[in-house]
Specification:
The chain is built from two helices and 13 strands; from the N terminus they run H-E-E-E-E-E-E-H-E-E-E-E-E-E-E. It is mainly beta and about 220 residues long. The chain starts with a helix and ends with a strand.
Protein backbone atom coordinates (compact mmCIF):
# COMPACT_ATOMS: atom_id res chain seq x y z
CA UNK A 1 0.00 0.00 0.00
CA UNK A 2 1.15 3.51 -0.79
CA UNK A 3 1.32 6.12 2.00
CA UNK A 4 -1.60 7.96 0.39
CA UNK A 5 -3.85 4.95 0.97
CA UNK A 6 -3.16 4.85 4.72
CA UNK A 7 -3.51 8.64 4.98
CA UNK A 8 -6.87 8.45 3.23
CA UNK A 9 -8.00 5.64 5.56
CA UNK A 10 -7.13 7.77 8.60
CA UNK A 11 -8.89 10.86 7.23
CA UNK A 12 -11.99 8.90 6.16
CA UNK A 13 -12.28 7.41 9.64
CA UNK A 14 -11.67 10.67 11.49
CA UNK A 15 -13.77 12.87 9.19
CA UNK A 16 -16.57 10.65 7.84
CA UNK A 17 -18.41 13.65 6.36
CA UNK A 18 -15.34 14.78 4.43
CA UNK A 19 -12.52 17.24 5.02
CA UNK A 20 -13.22 20.85 5.91
CA UNK A 21 -11.30 24.03 6.58
CA UNK A 22 -10.61 25.10 10.16
CA UNK A 23 -8.09 27.08 12.19
CA UNK A 24 -7.15 24.11 14.34
CA UNK A 25 -8.43 22.18 17.35
CA UNK A 26 -8.62 22.65 21.11
CA UNK A 27 -9.07 20.14 23.90
CA UNK A 28 -9.29 19.92 27.66
CA UNK A 29 -7.69 17.01 29.53
CA UNK A 30 -7.38 15.56 32.95
CA UNK A 31 -4.82 12.96 33.88
CA UNK A 32 -1.67 12.27 35.84
CA UNK A 33 2.11 12.25 35.39
CA UNK A 34 4.95 10.40 37.07
CA UNK A 35 8.48 11.84 36.91
CA UNK A 36 10.41 8.64 37.68
CA UNK A 37 9.75 4.95 38.31
CA UNK A 38 8.49 4.29 41.84
CA UNK A 39 7.55 7.95 42.27
CA UNK A 40 3.92 8.96 42.96
CA UNK A 41 1.49 9.93 40.24
CA UNK A 42 0.66 13.65 40.21
CA UNK A 43 -2.78 14.72 38.92
CA UNK A 44 -3.15 17.51 36.38
CA UNK A 45 -5.76 19.39 34.39
CA UNK A 46 -4.75 20.87 31.06
CA UNK A 47 -5.79 22.67 27.91
CA UNK A 48 -4.11 22.17 24.55
CA UNK A 49 -4.22 24.09 21.28
CA UNK A 50 -3.30 22.65 17.87
CA UNK A 51 -3.25 25.52 15.34
CA UNK A 52 -3.39 25.02 11.58
CA UNK A 53 -2.43 21.93 9.61
CA UNK A 54 1.16 21.58 10.85
CA UNK A 55 2.57 20.08 14.06
CA UNK A 56 2.62 23.15 16.31
CA UNK A 57 0.92 22.92 19.70
CA UNK A 58 0.72 24.55 23.14
CA UNK A 59 -0.13 22.50 26.26
CA UNK A 60 -0.85 24.37 29.51
CA UNK A 61 -1.42 22.37 32.68
CA UNK A 62 -1.95 22.89 36.38
CA UNK A 63 -0.43 20.00 38.32
CA UNK A 64 -0.81 19.20 42.01
CA UNK A 65 2.67 18.54 43.40
CA UNK A 66 1.57 18.23 47.05
CA UNK A 67 -1.38 19.32 49.19
CA UNK A 68 -1.85 23.07 48.55
CA UNK A 69 1.19 23.14 46.19
CA UNK A 70 0.61 23.36 42.44
CA UNK A 71 2.85 23.79 39.42
CA UNK A 72 1.95 25.49 36.17
CA UNK A 73 3.47 23.72 33.17
CA UNK A 74 3.76 24.90 29.57
CA UNK A 75 4.95 22.49 26.88
CA UNK A 76 5.01 23.74 23.28
CA UNK A 77 6.37 23.68 19.75
CA UNK A 78 5.74 27.05 18.13
CA UNK A 79 7.47 28.94 15.31
CA UNK A 80 9.91 26.05 14.97
CA UNK A 81 10.99 26.17 18.62
CA UNK A 82 10.30 23.73 21.46
CA UNK A 83 9.93 24.80 25.07
CA UNK A 84 9.17 23.23 28.44
CA UNK A 85 8.66 25.36 31.55
CA UNK A 86 7.29 24.50 35.01
CA UNK A 87 6.75 27.01 37.82
CA UNK A 88 5.70 26.13 41.38
CA UNK A 89 3.46 28.66 43.13
CA UNK A 90 3.42 30.61 39.90
CA UNK A 91 6.99 31.96 40.09
CA UNK A 92 9.51 29.35 41.34
CA UNK A 93 11.09 27.57 38.34
CA UNK A 94 11.46 23.80 38.78
CA UNK A 95 11.97 22.79 35.14
CA UNK A 96 13.00 24.60 32.00
CA UNK A 97 14.26 23.26 28.69
CA UNK A 98 15.14 24.93 25.40
CA UNK A 99 17.58 24.29 22.57
CA UNK A 100 17.95 22.00 19.51
CA UNK A 101 17.25 18.73 21.38
CA UNK A 102 14.18 20.27 23.01
CA UNK A 103 13.06 21.47 19.58
CA UNK A 104 13.33 17.88 18.28
CA UNK A 105 11.61 16.34 21.29
CA UNK A 106 8.69 18.77 21.11
CA UNK A 107 8.44 18.31 17.33
CA UNK A 108 8.08 14.57 17.99
CA UNK A 109 5.26 15.28 20.42
CA UNK A 110 3.60 17.45 17.78
CA UNK A 111 3.86 14.58 15.29
CA UNK A 112 2.69 11.93 17.75
CA UNK A 113 -0.44 13.92 18.62
CA UNK A 114 -1.64 14.35 15.02
CA UNK A 115 -4.71 12.15 15.80
CA UNK A 116 -6.06 15.18 17.71
CA UNK A 117 -5.95 17.20 14.46
CA UNK A 118 -6.60 14.49 11.88
CA UNK A 119 -6.99 16.93 8.97
CA UNK A 120 -3.17 17.29 9.19
CA UNK A 121 -2.70 13.71 7.93
CA UNK A 122 -1.80 14.88 4.43
CA UNK A 123 1.20 15.78 2.32
CA UNK A 124 2.76 19.10 3.31
CA UNK A 125 6.01 20.88 2.57
CA UNK A 126 7.55 19.99 5.98
CA UNK A 127 6.01 16.50 6.27
CA UNK A 128 6.77 13.32 4.37
CA UNK A 129 5.02 9.96 4.73
CA UNK A 130 6.24 6.41 4.16
CA UNK A 131 4.68 2.99 4.67
CA UNK A 132 7.14 1.00 6.82
CA UNK A 133 5.15 -2.18 7.51
CA UNK A 134 1.69 -3.67 7.48
CA UNK A 135 -0.58 -0.84 8.65
CA UNK A 136 2.44 1.20 9.78
CA UNK A 137 3.06 4.73 8.58
CA UNK A 138 6.17 6.83 9.20
CA UNK A 139 5.75 10.61 9.45
CA UNK A 140 8.91 12.70 9.11
CA UNK A 141 9.16 16.43 9.83
CA UNK A 142 11.91 18.67 8.46
CA UNK A 143 11.68 22.47 8.46
CA UNK A 144 15.33 22.96 7.56
CA UNK A 145 16.35 23.31 11.23
CA UNK A 146 14.67 20.47 13.11
CA UNK A 147 14.18 16.87 11.98
CA UNK A 148 11.85 14.44 13.76
CA UNK A 149 9.99 11.23 12.90
CA UNK A 150 7.29 9.01 14.41
CA UNK A 151 5.95 5.64 13.25
CA UNK A 152 2.18 5.22 13.58
CA UNK A 153 0.24 1.98 13.89
CA UNK A 154 -3.16 2.13 12.17
CA UNK A 155 -6.00 -0.39 12.45
CA UNK A 156 -8.25 -1.57 9.63
CA UNK A 157 -10.82 1.13 10.31
CA UNK A 158 -8.31 3.96 10.22
CA UNK A 159 -7.89 4.56 13.96
CA UNK A 160 -4.34 5.47 14.95
CA UNK A 161 -3.53 3.06 17.78
CA UNK A 162 -0.20 4.63 18.74
CA UNK A 163 3.18 5.93 17.70
CA UNK A 164 6.82 5.15 18.46
CA UNK A 165 10.20 6.78 18.06
CA UNK A 166 13.49 7.53 19.81
CA UNK A 167 13.18 10.79 21.70
CA UNK A 168 15.31 12.99 24.02
CA UNK A 169 14.47 12.36 27.70
CA UNK A 170 15.37 14.71 30.54
CA UNK A 171 17.72 13.00 33.03
CA UNK A 172 18.87 15.49 35.64
CA UNK A 173 19.99 18.45 33.57
CA UNK A 174 20.85 16.38 30.49
CA UNK A 175 18.81 15.02 27.58
CA UNK A 176 19.30 11.32 26.84
CA UNK A 177 18.09 9.61 23.65
CA UNK A 178 15.52 7.00 24.74
CA UNK A 179 13.03 4.70 22.96
CA UNK A 180 9.51 6.08 23.39
CA UNK A 181 5.94 5.12 22.51
CA UNK A 182 2.44 6.50 22.88
CA UNK A 183 -0.95 4.79 22.70
CA UNK A 184 -4.47 6.04 21.87
CA UNK A 185 -7.93 4.58 22.51
CA UNK A 186 -11.64 5.13 23.12
CA UNK A 187 -12.37 7.12 19.97
CA UNK A 188 -15.41 9.43 20.10
CA UNK A 189 -17.06 11.97 17.80
CA UNK A 190 -16.86 15.70 18.57
CA UNK A 191 -17.97 18.40 16.11
CA UNK A 192 -18.17 15.74 13.41
CA UNK A 193 -14.56 14.61 13.96
CA UNK A 194 -13.58 11.22 15.44
CA UNK A 195 -10.64 11.52 17.85
CA UNK A 196 -9.14 9.43 20.68
CA UNK A 197 -10.19 10.34 24.20
CA UNK A 198 -7.58 8.37 26.18
CA UNK A 199 -3.82 8.30 25.71
CA UNK A 200 -0.65 7.33 27.50
CA UNK A 201 3.07 7.80 26.92
CA UNK A 202 5.88 5.40 27.85
CA UNK A 203 9.67 5.47 28.00
CA UNK A 204 11.30 2.10 27.25
CA UNK A 205 14.19 2.00 29.71
CA UNK A 206 16.85 -0.70 30.10
CA UNK A 207 15.06 -1.91 33.25
CA UNK A 208 11.70 -2.06 31.51
CA UNK A 209 8.85 0.16 30.25
CA UNK A 210 7.99 3.22 32.31
CA UNK A 211 4.61 4.82 31.59
CA UNK A 212 4.93 8.42 32.75
CA UNK A 213 1.84 10.19 31.34
CA UNK A 214 -1.79 9.20 30.96
CA UNK A 215 -4.74 11.40 30.24
CA UNK A 216 -8.35 11.61 29.15
CA UNK A 217 -9.98 14.19 26.90
CA UNK A 218 -13.01 15.76 28.61
CA UNK A 219 -13.79 18.43 25.97
CA UNK A 220 -12.82 18.83 22.32
CA UNK A 221 -13.63 21.55 19.80
CA UNK A 222 -12.86 22.46 16.21
CA UNK A 223 -11.58 26.04 15.88
CA UNK A 224 -13.35 27.50 12.85
Amino acid sequence: MQAGGLLERIRDCAMPDGAFECRGTWLRQEGEMCFAPNRPWLPFRAEQWFPGNGIEFRWKARMRMAPLVHARVVDSFEDGKGMLRALVLGFIPVARSRGPETDRGEAMRGLAELPWRPFAFRERSCLTWEVVGVDKLRAAFDDGKTQAAVEFEVDGQGHVLGGASSRPRMVGKSLVETPWSGAFGEYRTFDGVVVPTVAEATWHLSEGPFTYWRGRVTEFRILR
